[in-house]
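Newbie here. two chains, one complex. Structure please?
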Amino acid sequence: MNFDDTPQEAEFRAKARAWIAANAPREYEDELKKAALGRIQLKSANILEVAKAWQKKKADAGWAVPHWPKEYGGRGASPIERVIWQQEEGVFGKLGALFIIGHGMCGPTMMAFAREEHKLRYLPPLASGEHIWCQLFSEPAGGSDVAGLRTRAEKDGDDWVINGQKIWTSGAHHSDYGILITRTDPTVPKHKGLTMFFLDMKSPGVEVKPIKQANGQAEFNEVYFTDVRIPDHQRLGAVGDGWNVSLTTLMNERMAIGAGVATGFPELFDFVNNLTLEDGPAIENPAVRSKLANWAVRASGLRYTSFRSISALSKGERPGPENSIGKLVAGAMTQEVATYALDLQGASGVLNSPEDAEVAGKFQAMLLRSPATRVEGGTDEILRNIIAERVLGLPGDIRVDKDVPFNKIPTRGRA
Amino acid sequence: MNFDFSDDQKQLRDEARRFLTEKSPPKAVRAVIDGKEPYDRELWKGLADMGFLGVAIPEAYGGSGAGHLELCVIAEEMGRALAPVPFSSTVYLAAEALLLAGSEAQKQKWLPAIAQGHAVGTLALFEGAGNPSPKAIKLTASNGVLNGTKKPVADGAIADFAIVAARTASTGRDTDIALFLVDLTSEGVEAKALTSIDPSRNQAEISFKNVKAELLGAPNEGWSILSQVLDRAAVLVGFEQVGGSDRALEMGRDYALDRIAFGRQIGSFQAIKHMLADMYVSATLARSNCYYGAWALSTDAAELPEAAAAARISATQAFQHCSKNNIQVHGGMGFTWEFDCHLYYRRSNALAVGLGSLSYWEDQLIERMRKKNAA
């Protein structure tokens, strides 16, 4: 058991550190440090342009998505080297938020299911940030029942014609491409009639409408498809095999979200450590300490759990369903931490502008964003089911629609 | 980075699990709980023969000298099997104190006896309700003579010797406290067994009347040594708690698969599934915190005090959570004497306070994080 770099890892770290020191956009460092969950913006510049420029610079030097194979725009780094890169990139890693869906989910799905010529054509510009990708899965009626989707794809010559609607699509408003799951056969049970594609988001008939969220931001979108044509060679996996393809995406999603998910604890500890209450420093108050300690061990527990996963990955083990705990624990925790940080501010906890609020309104932003963390990429309840069923081996939920043809499933609870 | 036990250490864990499954079944735990024996002597001898008692004791003192990572994997199995023996008091507390601060003669006398299963040791720290604190120690030492009472002392009525925390002055400083090694057969020592919520591991009151004792470590460093002993024990007990958590989770899972109600396995109901998933989450976080503690303990890292407190809190929460909800999953059966659920519930709550309460360790953790932050 050790935390030491092997000589090879130490060499990788030294190279990464030197390159970052010479190339990172230091002018945005302070602003990025202050950026809160759900509010990564720059006052001094357009975040989209800065993020794309940083990603491009990394790509030119071979540091974009280091763990991807070289031919697709990576450098073939090991799982541990990937972590070393993240450690060294530090606060500049926040600029990658825009690319998480593409790099974490669309890319791996393309690698597993696209034709080789498509991989060579589409993956390098995805890696370099030239193209942004989104993942078109959720639908208004679906929610956690992802396979209940209704967007249709019908074969017409060498093309498929798409009609329907997606929702909660992160980043669709600035995406160039997307992966899309559709229903190609409504006469078979719901998991069996699905087919996956990738498409150009600029295709005629694609309409993107940002959704204003509870926290006032608009990261997510509704996406409408009206007679959108996708050539058959952009199909991922076999016709009717879309559910299996999507499982690859969803597992990668949980890895991508779970590995980097924020708990809010370091921010809370810093805040409390510098806070003075009526009767003295907040950190000396036993009730405050007890609260902090409980979150501290959850945050450290997650951190060392991820170290254990990385150690397992580096020995060639596959990422398993146990990785669901990252988002499950951290999602609920950010909400609790933010609520408590507001409580400590008393009445002024209501203030949330970066100018007036304590620590630039970080916790207020976190409070308003955290409900989404507990829902996106699988709700807390779905993640508990995954742990119960796939880690502990408990029976699956009763699914009365499992063997029913999709077009025979009732759509309303009350007439 | 390699954040896992080695293959050899995992093999040792398997070996310990096989041995304890056979030699420490619930039946053996119940024999001790029912008061037939104060502890399982045959198991104790078996543990010595397997080399488990001396795994972290150097060869020069009769141990195998394997190390603390090896002791961690054994501790986990001791917790999983609820081994009804004075393991934690002897191996984590007494032996660690000797290793940290004992004189050559003290080590030569007691460590081989521990490794061979010939001596049971303990730490006599508490004097009634309250957390570890120099101020709470009233028992006095004057010219090497002890007077006062300790309660509760883990395994105190069956121990052969104790490390006793005593007050040598009243300046109000931590340096007022010294540690003494006392042969419990000495004149003036009286030990009385007390009943406890977990009779599978004993508690006692020990009174000292003009007892001659030998110093352990420097006279002004008693509290500092004690604090290090408690940190080391926090990691090791943490592994016992992780082992217990895992077993309680397993029992709950197995029952949920076995029991049918409303025409279905109860494990198919989300209320039960989610309860078991939350048990898994707490056990996993505790295991990971304990792994970090194990690394810090085995390398004597500067991070040990903080890592130990985190391991202690996380493991205490996990074992209490898992043992409590294991009863809930079992429903009424879980509350019967006949089912083993209460054995884990008892042990979890005894371990939760045995090294000082959760609030004490919470306080320690934040104080240590604060100091690190200031440094």
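Moderator note: The mean pLDDT of chain A is 92. Strands of chain A lie at 133-136, 152-156, 159-167, 177-183, 194-200, 206-210, 221-231, 235-236, 276-277, 280-281. Thread marked as resolved.
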